[in-house]
Amino acid sequence: MHLDHARFPEEYVRYIKGKYLFLILCVLFILILFLFSISVGAVPVPLDTVVRVIFGQESTLKWKSIIWNIRFPRALTAVIAGVGLAAAGAAMQSILRNPLGSPFTLGISQAAAFGAAMSVMLIGTGIMHSTGADAVTITNPYITTATAFLFCLLATAFLLAIAKLRHASTEVLVLTGVALGSLFTAGTMFLQYFADDVQLAAMVFWTFGDVGRASWDELAVITAIVSIGTVFFFFNSWNYNAIDTGDETAKGLGIHVERIRLLTMVVASLVTAVIISFVGVIGFVGLVCPHMVRRIIGDDHRFLLAGSCLAGGIVLLAADTVARTLMAPHVFPVAILTAFLGAPVFIYLLIRGYHR
What's the pTM? Predict the structure, then answer.
């Protein structure tokens, strides 16, 4: 069979252009969705008014207050949290070579939730308000995040130990993650059992993932940590590509596999801890988004990570928009919708994996 080698570079360029086109379309879509999310709600705001307020050309105090104090930080938190969870999920799936890897399925989200809940209840870093829109306020986000991160590290260390023990398979890691998730969920329930009425109400409300809780100050902390973590993941995209081919191959290319795996899990745990300590547990975003993008643009982490970040922002922002408008003026926690989306995908991946 004759092969036209002269066409290979042209085909490769077209192949790469297709990936860039997908990423550009995702950026445009998330910008449109962002404006739409700000405009809809219990009090509709015209799109042209939203644009004028953002660019400082609207003087109506009512619109400025609704957008800058409520909807803009909420929508931006959804995007940043989605980016962080999806990036952490994509990185975990790579370095563990586990298609079911994500902060939620591996028990890391539940560990962070337990740590943050312990900080809020026992150390007193959270207080209870009487309004449903602002039921829990984190008075010391640094202690809360540090406590959540500590328990994330414990869960991560246990997973890495299991992964190294006799080269544990994907099924073993997933089952270990399920066991860890159940353990930390039981720990959270234990705290709830001994809590008083106010603490219990705060605990239950806090465990519902809701991006509307983050203020501008908390959003700044989330954005800083997610940005640092995402840059780290992108910096190691070539290493992740090599690790996908197998540890021995990656080591043959001069990559310190164990060090990359350890650092990636620590960074992913930190990103997860920060997000969960402020907005509660949001599941399946880190699992679903990388798989959605992988089916469209492939496994190359130079593009997969970027696509996963954009998909994470889109999915979480869209889910939050639906949660706010489905039964307005009542607002559903966004974690409910992400669970409805993620659970069927998780089951599908399990079935497909065992079929193989």
Answer: 0.86
Residue 229: exposed, middle, or buried by beta-carbon count in 10 A (0-12, 13-18, 19+)?
buried
Closest CA to 257 of 239, 233, 231: 239
- Residue 147: both structure tokens together: 């406590």
pLDDT at residue 1 in the model: 43
The answer to whether 234 and 86 have CB atoms below 8 angstroms apart is no
* Residue 303 pLDDT: 94
- Mean pLDDT per 10-residue section of the chain, whose length is 356 residues: 54 82 96 94 87 84 88 94 95 84 84 82 66 56 79 85 70 82 90 76 71 86 95 94 86 87 88 85 87 88 94 94 81 82 74 54
Question: DSSP readout, 212-238?
Answer: GG--HHHHHHHHHHHHHHHHHHHHTHH
- Looking at residue 87, its pLDDT comes to 95
- E-strand ranges in the chain read 126-128, 136-138
What residues have CB less than 8 Å from 242, skipping those under 6 apart?
Answer: 249, 250, 253, 255
Q: Which amino acid is at 148?
A: A
Q: How far is CA 148 from CA 72, 118, 218, 230, 275, in A?
A: 27, 9, 15, 19, 10
- Write down all domains in the chain, each with its CATH number in brackets: 7-355 (1.10.3470.10)
Q: Look at residues 150, 164, 160 and name the one whose alpha carbon lies nearest to residue 106.
A: 160
Would you state the pLDDT for residue 232?
Answer: 97
Q: What is the DSSP letter of 211?
A: G
Q: Where are the alpha helices (DSSP H) in 194-300?
A: 197-207, 216-235, 237-244, 247-252, 257-279, 285-297
Residue with tokens 């994330």: 152
Is residue 282 within 8 A of residue 339, CB to CB? The reply is no
Amino acid at residue number 19: K
What length is written for the chain? 356
Cα distance between residue 172 and residue 265, in whole Å: 18
SS3 76: helix
